[in-house]
Amino acid sequence: MKSAVLFLVFNRPDTTRQVFEAIRAAQPPRLYVAADGARPQRAGEAERCATTRQIATEVDWPCEVITLFREENLGCKRAVSSAITWFFEHEEQGIILEDDCLPAQSFFGFCDELLERYKTDTRIWQISGSTFFPAAITKSNADYFFTRYGPIWGWASWRRAWQHYDPDLKDWPEMSQSEVMDNVYPYKAERIAKLSLGTKLFNSEIDTWDYQWGFSKNFNHALTIVPKLNQIVNIGFGNDATHTLTIDSNSQKESFDLKGSLRHSNFVVEDVVYGAVFSLKAFKSNLFKLALNKFLKG
């Protein structure tokens, strides 16, 4: 590997151990480990956080380890977003894994190669390891395709892209204007959902970081690379999770190692079929359903 890895952990030793073993097998040259502080009101959490931090730094291969361990609890939004910012202050590009995103080994090489291939292509902001929907959805002949949707269960990016991120959506009053929203989200069901979500984020009603990243990409017409074969399994569903309390029906329950050399795309073109399926699943839009059926039949 050439790329550095940012490992985001908190209070779950079991899932952290599994993901760390995958990182250990890949042997990145630099490992950044960021951890939020324990919540004082949660009994036993300080001990679990300490154990998790120990597991995440048990490096036994040639590797530089850099840590960002918070003494106080910042919450999901601030802890994760500031950790990613910290990572990109030190690295121009790299791979990001949370403590419940278990990667196939080929995920590391997939990101490594594509980070280099597209590092100066400003149309592309993210490389995702999660596919979410069956590979048959896309007609791409390559091992990956481009979409405006980008799952963050195991991903990679560049400093040039992350510099546009705003955890507070300070420009939401302008972004939420109808003439702007209509251009970014042309389908009504998605537009309504995103308008509601963005308003909640702007009013600090949701403690998270990832939706803001999605808005940053959408409002800059950025593309994400998604593999045809899923390479990440989320092992974090359960009562001790921050957000993934119940199993997401869109998540895939197995990952696949890509074999041989990557087959590359000759063009950078958005896969509108995958986008239609993603939006249909996420926002239940009849317009997307009609468009998808027409495409698949003809």
TrEMBL record:
Which Gene3D superfamilies does this UniProt record tie to the protein?
Answer: Spore Coat Polysaccharide Biosynthesis Protein SpsA, Chain A
Give the highest taxon in the source lineage.
Bacteria
Specify the protein name: Hemolytic protein HlpA-like protein
